[in-house]
Amino acid sequence: MGLGAVFSTKPYFIESEIPFLIIILTNILIFGALYGIFYGIFLAIKNKKAFVEEFKKINRDEKLYKLRLYLVCLTIFVFLMNMLLINDLTTKLVISFVLILAVLYPYLIIFVKSVEYSSMYNFVSVKKLTEGDWVEQDIKIKGKIIYKKKKLGIEKHDIEKLIRYKIKKVLVKQGIPFVPPIFLGLLFTIIVGKIVLLP
User: What is the per-residue pLDDT across 135-167, written as a single tens digit (0 to 9) for each?
Assistant: First the structure.
C-alpha cells in the first residue's frame, strides 16, 4: 500500500512501457522467491538433524509418492512427444526446462514442509508475544478453551488473557522476514528500471 501511494505515477527517469507498479511487484516476487529459497536452505543447514528427520518422514508419504510417480510418467510421455513432434530447438529447450521443474516440484514441497516443521515452530514465553504472532495450538485449562487459534494471529487482549491465566509458554510458528526482498526489489527497479528477467 505504501509503495502504491509513493509510486502512483512512474518516475520520470524510468523508461518502460510496462506500468511501474507491475515492474516493482514482479521484481519483489522474483527477489522474494530467491530469498525464500536461500533462507530455507540456511534454516535447513542450521537445523540439519531435525530437517533430515522431517525430510525422511515426509518423503515416505504415500500421496507424495503417487504424485512423483504420475509426474515422472507424464514427463516421460511429454518429453518423447517434444523430441519427436517439435522441430524448433528453442521450444524444445523451454519445454524440457518446464518438465525438469515438474519432476522437481514434489521435492520442493518436501523441502518446504521439512524446513517448516523442523525450523519454524518454537515455544515462546507469553510475555514475549506480540500482536500478530501465529500461536499454533488451542490453549485449554481444565478442558476449557481460553484461546482458539486464529488465522490473523494473536491479539493484544488474548495475550493479556494468557498472562492472567499464568500460561508460561505457547507454540508459535515463525514466519520468514520479507522486508529484505521488498527493499531489494524496489532498489533494483529504481536503479535498473526493468523486470529482472527481461533483457
Answer: 988 888 888 888 888 878 899 999 999 999 888
Q: What does pTM read for this prediction?
A: 0.71
For the chain, domain boundaries: 18-120+177-193, 121-174
- Cell numbers describing residue 28: 519483489
Strand, coil or helix: 141: strand
At the topology level of CATH, where does 121-174 sit? Molybdopterin biosynthesis moea protein, domain 2 (3.90.105)
